[in-house]
Design goal:
With about 325 residues, this protein is an all-alpha fold. The protein is built from 14 helices and two strands; from the N terminus they run αααααααββααααααα. The protein has a two-stranded antiparallel ribbon with strand order 1-2.
Length: about 325
């Protein structure tokens, strides 16, 4: 009887592991029926571009949350990178756009280093610490942007290249960068020693310590990787809209968090994974775009997205023997 129950459980898990992708297809068909222009090449390129901006941040969050830590400073990490680069180029005297971007990314990585210091060295719970750091960095962002939208006609023409250029007039550069990041991170997470260590640290840190894995070092690498990806996300977003708002990264944060959580229902049910995060980010963007296309009120997006997120969490709870993937406080 026990073996039969196990077989049924495994079968259900096999069916549910692709539920998220099925949802993307079904939702797309529904919107396509309601608004035929939804399936136009131009609209789907817009969807892919928007997915990239949500997805890059979500991939960063996925890496950290795979170690059983929480990362809620991703929004400020994205914004500070864009704010620093934008401020350096504001009056047109800074010599290089590329150098400004590198400095902005370096500052974002420093925020990740700050997170790892408090969480790993001082044992501050990551949930609380990343909220505190967000508050701190938001103050510096307000200072850099004068607490308003920052833009300048003295920014170089290259400022718009990353966010607005389309290869062959069709494919957005953010999408190309996103695909490259996803390929690299899937390889790292699924086919390297570092990736195996990341998953192991999240699943059983005590066992990792017993076999000589430095849990804190692995988590620090994850915080830094996340900060770098969020910095890239902020630079791309700023380039796309040609401005830097004080809430540039915070506007993406909740979608990125939802994509990370929903992604744990795909392929490896109950485990955070890059593939699931990408599909979830696509689903969220399809919903947002489709609701706009059919002219539905904005609150419908929240209702649909919230419903899918609740269902996703329910699927994890029913199919994962250990229960919901959770983020625990440091002991």
């Amino acid at each position: 009887m026990g073996e039969k129950k196990t077989a049924v459980h495994a079968g259900n898990k096999g069916l549910t592991r692709y539920l998220l992708l099925f949802a993307v297809v079904v939702v797309s068909i529904i919107f396509g029926i309601l608004q035929p222009k939804f399936f136009s090449v131009r609209n789907w390129m817009n969807i892919v571009s928007s997915t990239s901006l949500v997805g890059i941040m979500a991939v960063g969050m996925t890496i950290v949350m795979s170690t059983n830590e929480m990362e809620l400073a991703t929004g400020c990490e994205a914004t500070i990178a864009a704010a620093v680069a934008g401020r350096l180029l504001l009056d047109g005297t800074f010599p290089s756009y590329i150098l400004a971007v590198i400095i902005g990314l370096a500052v974002s990585v420093c925020v990740g280093l700050l997170n790892s210091f408090f969480v790993l060295k001082l044992s501050v719970p990551s949930f609380i610490e990343t909220i505190a750091v967000t508050t701190l960095i938001d103050g510096f962002i307000s200072l850099a942007t004068n607490n308003s939208y920052m833009f300048s006609n003295k920014w170089p023409s290259s400022y718009a290249f990353l966010g607005q250029t389309r290869v062959a007039g069709i494919i957005p550069v953010p999408a190309i960068i996103f695909v490259a990041i996803v390929i690299v991170m899937i390889f790292v997470m699924d086919h390297t020693k570092l990736g195996r260590y990341i998953g192991s640290v999240g699943a059983n840190p005590t066992a990792c310590t017993n076999v000589g894995i430095n849990n804190k070092k692995i988590k620090m690498i994850c915080f830094l990787l996340c900060a770098l990806l969020c910095g890239i996300d902020g630079i791309l977003t700023s380039s796309q809209v040609l401005s830097v708002s004080p809430t540039l990264g915070q506007d993406v944060l909740m979608d990125a968090m939802a994509a990370t959580m929903m992604g744990a229902t795909f392929l490896r049910v109950g485990r955070y994974n890059i593939q699931g995060t990408v599909v979830a980010a696509l689903l969220l963007t399809v919903i947002q775009n489709g609701i706009t296309s059919v002219g539905a009120p904005n609150f419908v997006e929240d209702i649909v997205t919230g419903t899918i997120l609740i269902i996703s969490i329910g699927v994890i709870a029913m199919t994962r023997k250990e229960g919901l993937p959770s983020v625990t406080f440091n002991e």
